[in-house]
Amino acid sequence: MTVASITDLDVTDHYAEALHEVIEAKAEHRAPTPTTGEEKTAAPVVDLMAALEKSVADARERRGESSGGSEATVHEMPAKPKKKTAAKKATAKKTAAKKTTRRKTA
Predict the structure, then answer these.
(1) Where does this protein have compositionally biased stretches of type Basic residues (predicted)?
(2) Would you call 59 helix, strand, or coil by DSSP?
(3) Residue 104 covered by a domain
């Protein structure tokens, strides 16, 4: 974009305007006036569970399965065998007596 094309745009810095208003209000020891802005409409709420159920039903229909409420079968997971812990080895005690060594001094 060129400078000319930017200056042709009708751009308003609402944040800077609101900041200047707050600064002026603080300097005059008063509360800032609330700004009236555009009312934003709320986005439509999507029911995720309904969308998921519809997606699953559509997928079943494409595969040729009946969507007549057939539930998936649930199987118990086999129990995992417990791991055996290795027996702890007893530490060998030192039986040798401490040897004392003398340092040679110069």
Answers:
(1) 80-106
(2) helix
(3) no
Identify the residue whose tokens are 């040729």.
64
**Contact between 21 and 28 (Cβ < 8 Å):** no
Count of H helices and E strands in the chain? 3, 0
Closest CA to 35 of 15, 52, 10, 6: 15
Tell me how many domains the chain contains: 1
Contact call for residues 67 and 61 (beta carbons, < 8 A): yes
Q: What is the pTM of this model?
A: 0.28
Query: What does the DSSP 8-state code read for residue 76?
Result: P
In a domain, 82, yes or no: no
Residues 6+ apart with CB under 8 A from 35: 14, 17, 18, 21
